[in-house]
Each structure stands twice: as C-alpha cells, then as structure tokens.
Amino acid sequence: MGKSMDLSCTVRENNTSRKFGRRCAFWNLGNEASCLKQFNMNTKELDGYLKFLSEKQTAVQESGFDVEDSDLSPQLFPFQKYCVKRALKVGRFAMFADCGLGKTYMQLEWAQQVVNHIKKPLLILAPLGVVGQTIKEGEKFGYKVNEIALRWLSTKTRRISGTSQKRYDTTIYLLPFHG
C-alpha cells in the first residue's frame, strides 16, 4: 500500500478556478484513471496538475566528495556514519537530529574529513554557548579543535590570535559569535 497525503491545488481554466483538496494515494499517481477518479478531474486538468508538480521538483547537485566507511571514525554509530557520508557527498547539507544523537560528534567528524580532503584548516562558526562543549567533545573523540578570536587592529588588518599567520596546521577552528 502506498503513502497518502493531503493535496490541494487550484486549476484555472477559462477564467474560472476549481480547487481540489482530496486525499490521494501516491503509489497510483501514475495511474491516470485512478487519479482522475480520486480528484474528479478530466485529462486536461490532470496533465496541468502533473506539470505543476513536476515544475516544483528540485534536483540535488552534489558538490562534495566520497569517503569509505573505513575512513570514518569507528566510534560513529551506523546512522551517524550515514549522515556524515551523505553530508560529505552532497557538499551543502544540514543535519537536523534530535537531542542526544551526536550532532556535535557528526559535525566534528565531517570537519575532520574536510580538513583531510582539502589539506587546509576549517573554520566553524558557533554560538558562544556551545564552543566549550564542542572543544570538550573534540578532546573526548580525538579531534584537534581550537577556539579563535578575531581582533581588528588600529591598522584595520586582521590577526587571528593563538595561531601563526605564516603557517596553519590542519586543524579545526571555532569562531564564537554572540547573539
């Protein structure tokens, strides 16, 4: 049995509009007769609605890189490995995980993999309240995480305190923000 979802759309035809709001089973959305029956639509209306739906679909353009399971921390749970691998492959990704599922740990593993891949340091912007926790989590799981602060000097040049401007090691930097 397929998933069902409440659908609502308005079809304009000959300066009149007709609103459809019915429950439709998606597993037979491709079956025109079934959809026509469920929506009380004619073929022209259904074609217009299916065209409307197809225009709303988005495609993910992956811009990341692949890693093997063996390259990830063995301490990650399988679902965490999946999330980290997916985030690395997609490139632009957000992890919305519930409290206690290891978001900080996944973030640090993701960051370490990016550092390993690009061979440059990585900067994470973090709310001031979580910087300490993130550094402790990093120590607990073996990541090198440093808090940094940007200072604007009177010459309006930037200096990163606690680091050498000439040489960066491959590490993860946290920049706290207020707000």
Radius of gyration: 25 Å
Run of helices and strands = EEHHHHEHEEEE
What's the average pLDDT? 75
The number of strands is 7
* Content-based structural category: alpha/beta
Distance N terminus to C terminus? 48 Å
Strand order in the sheet with the most strands: 3-7-4
Overall body shape: elongated
Largest sheet: 3 strands, parallel
Number of continuous helical runs: 5
Roughly how much helix do the residues carry, as a percent range?
A: 25-40%
Describe the structure.
With 179 residues, the protein is an alpha/beta fold. 36% of the residues lie in helices and 23% in strands. The chain contains five helices and seven strands. It has helices at 32-39, 43-56, 78-90, 103-118, 128-141; strands at 4-13, 16-25, 122-127, 145-147, 150-152, 158-160, 172-177. The strands form three sheets. Strands 3-7-4 form a three-stranded parallel β-sheet. The chain has a two-stranded antiparallel sheet with strand order 1-2. Strands 5-6 form a two-stranded antiparallel sheet. The radius of gyration is 25 Å and the shape is elongated.
